[in-house]
Every structure is written in C-alpha cells, then in structure tokens.
Amino acid sequence: MRRRSGLFIALLVVGVSACSGDDTGSSSSVPASDAPSTEAPTTDAPVVTEPPFAPVPPSASGVGTTTVEGPVTGGAGQIVFGTSAFDGSAFGYIEEEYFIAGTATSYTSATPLSEDGLWEVEAKDTAEYKTRIVVRRPATATDFGGTAYVEWLNVTAGLDTGPTWSLSWIDIMRQGAVWVGVSTQRVGVEGGGNAMGEFRVLKKADPERYGSLNHPGDNYSYDIFSQAGATVWQQADVILGGLEPEVVIAAGESQSGFRMASYLNAFAPMHDVYNGYLVHSRGSRAANLYCATNCADPGDPSDVKTPTVVRIREDLTRPVLNFVTETDVVGDRLGYRRAEQPDTDVFRNWEVAGTAHGDAYSLGIGDGEKGDGQADIELFEAQFGAPTSVYMGIIECAKPINAGPHTYVLRAALRALDNWIRTGEAPASMPTLRNNADITGYEVDANGLALGGIRTPYVDVPMAVLSGLGQDGGGFCGLFGTTTSMTAEQLDAMYPTADDFVAKWNEATDAAVASGAILEIDADAIKAAGATYGAMRAGM
After folding, report:
1. Could you tell me if 181 and 192 are in contact, meaning their C-beta atoms sit under 8 angstroms apart?
2. 494: buried, middle or exposed (CB in 10 Å: 19+, 13-18, 0-12)?
3. Per the count of CB atoms within 10 A, which of 45, 260, 370, 392 is most buried?
4. Contacts of 215 by beta carbon, 8 Å cutoff, 6+ apart
5. Distance between CA 394 and CA 338 in Å, rounded?
6. Is 526 in contact with 509 (CB distance < 8 Å)?
7. Please, are residues 418 and 516 in contact by the beta-carbon 8 Å criterion?
8. What residue ranges do the domains of the chain occupy?
9. Is 277 exposed, middle or buried (0-12, 13-18, 19+ CB in 10 A)?
10. pTM recorded for the entire structure
11. What is the mean pLDDT of residues 117-133?
12. Residue 476: pLDDT band with limits 50, 70, 90
C-alpha cells in the first residue's frame, strides 16, 4: 500500500497552535458549479440523553443542511491531501472526494468563557461556504463494520492532514470503518497559514479542481464541522456509496484537539451530531470561539477568547475519550495537567507512558505500514536506532526521537470508544502519569522512565528510556521526545538471556491487553517483534 509521506504530514501530527488558522475572511456566496448535487433531508431521530449510548443517528438539532457534489474529479486528476496519493486497494478500500456547501453560522458569547466549559453561546453572523471532504471506505458493503470516524483536519503546517488517521489507519481498516477528513478550516482551503505548506493548499495546488471552494473563515468552522457530521448521517447514500453508518465518531488531534475541546463545550450539546468524541493530544486550553482579527488585538471587544485553562464540560451526554502523551501533559507549551479532570460516566482520560506528541512511527515507520508485522519489527528495532532526523534530514534533532507505543494505545482507544458507544461499557479508568509538582517533568524509575500512566512492554520491559521530553533542536523537535538506548551491560543485567527477555516481554504485553491498553491483534505482532530480541542483541 502506498502511504502518504513527507515533511508536512509530520508537522501536522505535531502541530500545537490552539488558534492556528483563525481568520476573518468571509464571502456572501458560493461559486456556481456544474457538478451534480443533492439536498440533504432532515431527520427526526431521537436524541440519546443517558448512557448507554445507543448507536442511533442523533437528531442534529438546528444543524443546517448541505448540498453535496461528487465524487469530485477533474483538475490534475488527484485528490490533494498531505503530500502524496493514497492507495487502499490492497485492503479493499477506496478513496473519494466530495464538496459540501451550505450556510454556516459563527457564534459569540455575551459573557467571558469559563474554565469549566459550561459555555452559553449565541449566533452572530452567517456566511455561505463550500469546502471538501475526503472519504476512505470499504469498497464492498459486507466489509463495512458500521463505524465512521470524522476527523477535523489539522492545518498547523499550512495544509490539510489527518494525524489521527496517520497514527491509527491500519486498525481503522481492520475494523472495516469509514474515515472522513473534513477541510474545516480556512487555511487548508484558501491558504494564509504556515508558508511551508502553501504548495498543498487546495485552491493553489489545483485551481481547476478546487477553484469553486469558498471558506469564509474559522469563526464558521465549528458549524461547518457539525454540518459535515450531519451529512455523513443524512447523505450516506451519496458520500459513503450507500454504506449506512451505525456510529459516527468525531476526532481531532493537537491543533484540532484544541478545537475539539471548544466544539464540545459550545456545540456538542446544542447540535448533537456525533455519537462520541476522541480528543487527541490537546493541551490545557481550547481554541478561540470568535476572532474579529485573528484575536491579535487584546483590546478588541468582539473577540471571544478562551481561558488559558479549559476543561470539558461535565454535563455532556455523549462519551469523550481524552488521549494524551507525555509531551502533552507537562510543560509550558501544552501542559494538559492544568486542565485535568476526573473520569465520569461520559469522560475518560488516557495518559500513555513512554510516548511523545510525534514519534518514530508517525514520522516515518507508519508511512510504510502494510499490516504484515514489518512495521512492528521496525518500531521494536528503533529502541536501538531511533532516528535523529526525519524526512531526509529536513528536520534535524539533537537526540534520537521517541520510538514509543503511541500508535498501539491509540488504536485500542478508538476501539474502546466505539465499544463504549455501542454497549454502554465504559473503557477502563487508567492511571495518570506521575508528574512533578511544578508540572515540568515526571517522577521516574531507576532507569529514568516516567512512572504511572498506561503501561506497555515498551516501558515495563524496557530496552531504552522512552520519553516525551528532553529533545533539543530547532523547529518541532521539542515535540518528538527522546529514545535513549540502554547499554549492553544494562540489558544483560535485566535480561540475562534472550529467553528471559522474551518471557518478560510477552508477560507485559498480556498485561497491557488485559488492561485494555493494547489490542489482541497488535499483541501478536508485538510479541513476534519481541521474539527477534536475541538476534538483534547478537548483532549489536
């Protein structure tokens, strides 16, 4: 399978700007198109207000309908997404692109937004929009598992990418699930963000194909995301090739995770579009609600900014799984710990030991994933040879980057969230990472590994000290964490023989499966990778 790869995917995976892409561009009309369109019907499906969260279409109360065009063709003949084409044929998947258009509303608040997330918002302006969605789905209806993941595409690097897809796509396909990436923010469509990504901005990369698109600004992004989710339910016959979703889950990572936090606090109770939410690698704050001028003028009374600490409101009736790495929990840039909140009937927080915001899997290994176990071996071997540079040296870091289990636990998190929605059985409440008092680092064991958090064999039977912190170098390196390989003497002291290592590795893997942190199907691959330890040590 040919995978999307390149610097800009990496940058989007690790983007951290909470208000990246905020702007005030607007338009009063949507350019005409000759492509066929259909009008979405409304639905009278009931609202689910208490657990268990029965997998029925939400009511989408007050959400505007969209017109859909597509599948889109023309222009240069390829979908512009990330930096290269997608081919899922080896997995029985197809990719299609659609344009959705409608009238979006921006929102404001008469009172300052509060840390508890119990926000009351009111409509401000309306604008016509036309954006795109990318759909990846099983080609055969009988292969569809019933779940659709709708990802708020990340624009930190100046173009659209899907970090949650990049880290978990192999299991999304194993589920037979649909993935829908939404160009929710203006930067991905119109440009004006990070200059490095300008060559993949839709209207610049292929003006013929995307010239009719019109994004009025990020003040409208929240309503656009609601309308996109409603379209998945209401126009599945068009955009999903007739596949009928049973569960639709919203997801957003990093910059999009900040926006997901604001979406949950202001719009999820009002619109009720999604059955559940994955908030992936957010920090302590949330994205701004409304910005007249990119929220750059501290004295502009029309701006509605968020506090520096924002929690997810506690009166939600749809489940939320908050997933964070070591990099996300501490420090000044992200510092999720400042917004920490307890688990409830509708909220779970997963903090994963030994992981970083971006890592060796998301920055290279995952690009060659084929689901045949080879990528698992590569990640295992990276404990002794994690790269210091990524993408042909375009990004150079001072130390080997993190080679931790982020991808495995994220796959398990998505499955747990889906099961929670379908059965009412909440995921396990997981231990939190044990940070120091000033939230700058972690309490560590004798080897230097962080204590607490979700445990996997990568930290409980270590071959290296995996951390989300401690990296030096320019650009985004501070988000890539570190891998400090153990010496031969350390390894021999902990694992006198290869058989001893394998036995401990397998035991820790089984424990992670039992805790819900790793899927059984991934455990088999992790164990197979661990079985190569003896040969790898012999070659060191």
Report:
1. no
2. middle
3. 260
4. 25, 129, 130, 131, 183, 185, 186, 189, 190
5. 33
6. yes
7. no
8. 7-40+61-318, 360-540
9. buried
10. 0.91
11. 97
12. confident
